[in-house]
Amino acid sequence: MKRKAALGIVLVVILAFCFAAIFAPVLAPHPPEEQNLCAGLSGPSHNHLLGQDKLGRDVLSRMIYGARVSLIVGVAVVLISALVGFLVGAMAGALGGMVDQVVMRLIDLLMAFPGILLAIALAAVLGPGLGNVIFALSLLGWVGYARLTRAQVLVERERPYYEAARALGAGRLRLIFRHLAPNVSGPVLVQASFGIAGAILSEAALSFLGLGTQRIPSFGSLLSHGINFLRTAPHLTIFPGLAVFLLVISFNLLGDFLGDYLRVEEKGRAK
User: Fold this and answer.
1) Which neighbouring-strand residues pair with 52?
2) In this predicted model, which residue has the larger pLDDT, 70 or 264?
């Protein structure tokens, strides 16, 4: 019951952020760029529940729009990375031989390079922007999914259903998409949950450095703007930091729950 309650809380937090992101124009109490210089750095109040920044903009409204940026980046990066990684890993595992060797050596080479450093370099070269952030984070994001998919495919190739499908004359593409894909999707889904958390954290880091979105507020940019006012206006960093923490830890916990569920299912199948 405790785990079910914890899972329920995690889902509520994730759904709350998703709801806020989708309905940001309706839920935001003020326009995110509306300024009131006379009330700059004001703390939480009745009209501004989470306070105002140095330009008098409502922090809550900007955080609601920031949730939209974080979730768009997290979901987009994972979708692109998981799709590319699945295709590459499945082809390498299913074909084997020289193709598998070449792909794995490429993956080993790319995994040795720190992904966040490449993302920072690319974002600096391409310039700030939502699309550039997604591209920069996806460029190496697929590698982990490819390695995981290839490992799962090698396991599934030894199962009777795969041999039976081959004996009946199923082609490579049918074997991959009709037989292998449903059976390797579980671990990939778990990896995707952790991937969303990592992408959100990376986007916040890029935005904090000024390499993320510029016109649209994000959690990272809110933290960057508030870092100089830690003593006079701590609400500028506390609330965005708490939002990043809740969102990232919720997706990580969701990945843990999914992993435990799949392990139970796998034990059931083995029996």
Assistant:
1) 58
2) 70
CB 137 within 8 A of CB 80: no
pLDDT tops 70 at residue 267: no
Query: Residue 80 falls within a domain, yes or no?
Result: yes
36 occurs within a structural domain: no
pLDDT score of 198: 93
**Which run of H or E residues covers position 172?**
helix 172-174
- 203 assigned to some structural domain: yes
Name the one residue in this structure whose structure tokens are 């460029």.
139
Closest to 252 in 3D by CA, of 204, 200, 186: 200
The answer to the question of residue 250 being in a domain is yes
**What is the tally of structural domains in the chain?**
1
Half-sphere exposure for 223 (CA within 13 Å, toward CB) = 22
Residue 99 pLDDT exceeds 90: no
Q: Specify whether the CB–CB gap between 247 and 4 falls below 8 A.
A: no
Contact 122/135 with Cβ under 8 angstroms?
Answer: yes
pLDDT at residue 253, as a whole number: 93
CATH of residue 110: 1.10.3720.10
C-alpha to C-alpha distance for 6 and 16, rounded to whole angstroms: 15
d(CA 240, CA 66): 9
* Structural domain boundaries enclosing 159: 74-270
pLDDT at 236 over 90: yes
Whose structure tokens read 């041999």? Answer: 163
Global pTM value: 0.89
Residue 184 burial (CB count, 10 A): 23
| pLDDT classification of 245: cutoffs 50, 70, 90 | very high
Kindly tell me if the per-residue pLDDT of 220 is higher than 70. Answer: yes
In the chain, how long is the greatest CA-to-CA distance?
Answer: 77
